[in-house]
Amino acid sequence: MKSLKSYARFLELFCIVAVIPVMIISLFLKWFGRVIPMYNTMSNYVTNLKDGVRYIYQVQAAHVSALPMPSRILGFIADGVSVTLFIYGCFYFICVLRCYQRGEIFSDNTLSFFTNVSKAAFAWTLYNPINYMLLSIITTMYNPVGQREIAIAFGSQDIMNIFIVGCFWVITSLMHEGYSLKKDQDLTV
Amino acid sequence: MKIIVNLDKIMAERKMRLNELAKLIDLTEANLSILKTGKAKAIRFSTLEALCLALACQPGDILEFDPETME
Q1: Is B32 touching A (CB cutoff 8 A)?
Q2: Which of A131, A136, A121, A59 is CA-nearest to residue A91?
Q3: pLDDT for A71-121, tens place per residue?
């Protein structure tokens, strides 16, 4: 139990200090990087990366910087929905971790929070292909006629995400079973 | 079908209170109350043995099967 509490504490801090801020900052940097002066610091960091990784960042940055501001705002909103779903899942995951720190492993609260994490993961997985389609429209809507695109894609990453969501649902079902076993155990004298 | 717990009857006959019985059989009052009010899902043999010893009775005096009662 002591190790579970310490792991839960570490994960909670990691989510709050690293995961959520990185998601938000990278969202802003992706769409408004050239506008915000602090991106110059990131550019210096990018030049120190290995060639392949630097190429990816520079191509992405060059493409986004060529977009007009209305496209950037729409792209920010489209990506923002994905990040919001992710943070929503993180929020409920943090609530689960706080329950574990209090010693509540199988309880009503833990069960409902974990179910919400699974729902958020499912929604995020469903939204990813939609996000890709929206971004393809947003990034080409100001192109000349004949160069506008709508792309529908479903790749290996999406299949992996579905697998991960399936694992989440299996764990949620296990939590339900564990909760009913605990209730029976509590009523055994 | 239901198992009926007649613990309150036996306790009244022996003139024993809940807290006294709980101390005798090393069980919390809350758990003993769960048993007494019929909310228990299961009872361990060790608990049943301790109850029979403390109340000087048989398991059949404490537990009764009533086929007509629906849960």
Answers
A1: yes
A2: A121
A3: 889 989 999 999 999 999 999 999 999 999 998 888 889 999 999 999 999
Q: Which residues of chain A make contact with B39, given a CB cutoff of 8 A?
A: 187
Of the listed ranges A42-46, A135-139, A166-170, the least confidently predicted one is A42-46
pLDDT of residue A52: 53
Q: What is the pTM of this model?
A: 0.74
B48 at A interface, C-beta within 8 A: no
For A13, A15, A170, A172, B1, the CA distances from A123, given in Å and listed in that order, are 25, 20, 16, 16, 45
Give the rounded percent of residues in chain A with a pLDDT score beyond 90: 50
| Separation in Å, CA of A186 to nearest CA in chain B | 9
The ipTM assigned to this model is 0.81
> Using an 8 Å Cβ cutoff, are A81 and A137 in contact?
no
Say if A182 is an interface residue toward chain B (CB within 8 Å).
no
Q: DSSP code of B69?
A: -
String of b and e for B6-22 (b: at least 16 CB within 10 Å)? bbeebbeeeeeeeeebb
Q: How many Å lie between the alpha carbon of A20 and the closest alpha carbon of chain B?
A: 44
- The helix (run of H) or strand (run of E) holding residue B3 is strand B2-5
Residue reference for tokens 């389609």: A133
- Residue A53, class by beta-carbon neighbours within 10 Å (0-12 exposed, 13-18 middle, 19+ buried)? exposed
Among A96, A160, A161, A156, residue whose Cα is nearest residue A122 = A161
Tell me if chain A has a CB within 8 Å of the CB of B42: yes
